[in-house]
Amino acid sequence: MNDLFFNIPESDKKTLLLNLRAIKSQFPSGVTVFNAENNNTMGIIDSGFVQIIRNDYNGDRILVEELSKNQIFGTRISSITSHDYEVVSVSPCTITFIEFTEIYSDRIKKLPYYLQLQENLIRIMSDIILKRNERIQVLSQKTIRERLLEYFKLMSKQQKSKKITLPFTYTELADYLGINRSAMYRELNNLKDEKQISINKKVISLYFYF
């Protein structure tokens, strides 16, 4: 169950979505499903994967975040803060859209599980702020090596293992870390030669201490 509906029974969830006037939409892979112009809308991923992309002043597309089933995006709750950002499907996906104003409508406030919904939304926003701060910590590292190692440490913490699985491709990893792809591969090879890590496709084993 999506975190937004934590502790809300399935039967009540259907009633809640009806009262929220939620709209469920399906998208093919490779299309824009959301942009910052939808500043009063949030999307809940029912299936598939999407990426938050920022288009910089050079026209380059920078990966900000990849989201999957049950995760939420929107201008008020995620990294989509200007018209330079968009959400793109990277697989066929189904997304439920809800207008933020509906959450605070008198109609919703009268429902018995309104307070639970509010608690869930606050928890989600707190988690997003935490993840954003973790990303800032990674990007604040000055060298490519430091960014890689800081990111690996973060993934190890999240996956509770020193054998981590990258959530996206190496090209996307370079975009996510804001570094040159060729320079990143050179540094990964250096780390392998120094026996700091080993790589098997998208699985990276960590041997350094932290």
Brief write-up:
Helices cover 39% and strands 26% of the residues. With 210 residues, it is α+β, with helices and mostly antiparallel strands. Helix 4 runs antiparallel to helix 5 (144-159).
Q: How is this fold's topology laid out?
A:
Elements: H1 10-19, E1 23-27, E2 32-35, E3 41-47, E4 50-55, E5 61-67, E6 72-74, E7 85-89, E8 93-99, H2 100-103, H3 106-109, H4 114-139, H5 144-159, E9 163-165, H6 170-177, H7 181-193, E10 197-200, E11 203-206
Antiparallel strand pairs: 1-8, 2-7, 3-6, 3-8, 4-5, 4-7, 9-11, 10-11
Helix pairs in contact: 4-5
Question: Please, could you describe this protein's structure?
Answer:
The chain is α+β, with helices and mostly antiparallel strands and 210 residues long. It folds into two domains: 3-136, Jelly Rolls (Sandwich); 141-206, Orthogonal Bundle (Arc Repressor Mutant, subunit A). The chain has seven helices and eleven strands. The strands form three sheets. It has a four-stranded antiparallel beta sheet. It has a four-stranded antiparallel beta sheet with strand order 2-7-4-5. The model has no long low-confidence stretch (mean pLDDT 89).
Uncertain runs are none
The CATH topology of the largest domain is given as: Jelly Rolls
Structure annotation, total helices = 7
Largest sheet: 4 strands, antiparallel
- Class of the largest domain in CATH? Mainly Beta
| SSE run | HEEEEEEEEHHHHEHHEE
CATH architecture annotation name of the largest domain: Sandwich
Shape: elongated
**Taking Cα atoms only, what radius of gyration do you get, to the nearest Å?**
19 Å
Summing up helix and strand content along with how strands pair, one would put the structural category as: alpha+beta
CATH superfamily of the largest domain: Jelly Rolls
* Tally of individual domains: 2
Overall pLDDT? 89
Strand order of the largest sheet: 1-8-3-6
Strand content: 25-35%
